[in-house]
Model the fold of this input.
Amino acid sequence: MHENASPYPAAWLMDLDRQYRPSLLAFFRRRTGNPAEAEDMVQEVFARIYATAGLERETAGAYIFRAAANLLHDRARREGVRAAWREEAITQGEGAVESRDPERVLAGQQALGAIQRALGSLPERTRVIFILYRLEGMARKDIAESFGLSVSAVEKHIAKAMKLLMALREDWQ
Done:
């Protein structure tokens, strides 16, 4: 096998592209507002698939959307670093004082950490389905088609995640 060759049959990769490209493009366009950047990000998702060994047909959809979410996370982190650098460059020399209350920042970080841990404790499929539905605004029907599930099964995954988060919320109050 050529060292740059994918471990997957070309027909399977083409099927994945045909099945997931429209959803991924819509997903990235909504988040970036830039069609060219959305297309680049879709290409990056498929490049990751191409280079990843051991991907199973049954989990390919979850992997694709996880890779997409990770790409958005990386993009947001890069933008955050750039924004922080710009802000620091602007305020440097002005004697700027931190405007955020440290206790409030800490409380927010702790709450976010608890949510991340709670979501991390869910089975991967449940977590990805919940994120696609609640955070990314993807329709239950589209999620069901992507995972090869019924809409009812998708709703059960969403309900399971919501139950966990509601229990966490009750602990805070």
